[in-house]
């Protein structure tokens, strides 16, 4: 059976994303993002499912620092709705719960609910791991914020579905593999190309580097910058582009990019997820 690696415990939202994209694969939990990617690099897993950003909490900072150091490729994207559930031991009612534990981001996304119910928030390292620990405890006054999958895996009751303050909370995942998937361009499909580059140390370098995309009518879906770790002068840019590398417009834009940027690296080209058509 093929294997897909993810960060977190069984029942984590990354696990849920794996089950949606690779329903017949074995999902392998890992302690951290680096370990999940290394499983792919070492041939222990064929894919890694890694969260890049969340519509409420923003980007996953750690991932942007790991991606330049890995030699893996991005072969797909997945948008997973994050529907937080308030979980408790079997038979526990909402009015019994005095404190609720989960990852800090989950607590933040459910802050108003927690306040309105008069519960005490407790920060822990992992949503699914907190659900697992609750399942082996006898604490009937404690709840956990995690996924419905975690409830099923650990035999907990879902006391309150959609516990988050804002509906539509979504996480974007990238799928990593050892080999680049060469997508032949289909004019009827939409594609995303992800790439990294650094800009030359000249005035208006970033403006000039990206100018070719504007003049060729290509949309930039995402632009993130961060320091490369070796100095305060060089910035690395992560760009998601709504085009295929074989698109003639893209070829012209990449030529212009090469004049003003260095260390250009295409992470991958993949079909745009259906979620983008609803944005």
UniProtKB/TrEMBL annotation:
PROSITE patterns: ACT, PREPHENATE_DEHYDR_3. One of its GO terms (cellular component) is cytoplasm. Residues 3-178 form the Prephenate dehydratase domain. InterPro entries: ACT-like_dom_sf (IPR045865), ACT_dom (IPR002912), Preph_deHydtase (IPR001086). Coiled coil: none annotated. It is an enzyme of class 4 (lyase). It catalyses: prephenate + H(+) = 3-phenylpyruvate + CO2 + H2O. GO terms for molecular function: prephenate dehydratase activity. One of its GO terms (biological process) is L-phenylalanine biosynthetic process. Keywords: Amino-acid biosynthesis, Aromatic amino acid biosynthesis, Lyase, Phenylalanine biosynthesis. Pathway: Amino-acid biosynthesis; L-phenylalanine biosynthesis; phenylpyruvate from prephenate: step 1/1. Residues 194-271 form the ACT domain. NCBIfam families: PRK11899.1. This is prephenate dehydratase.
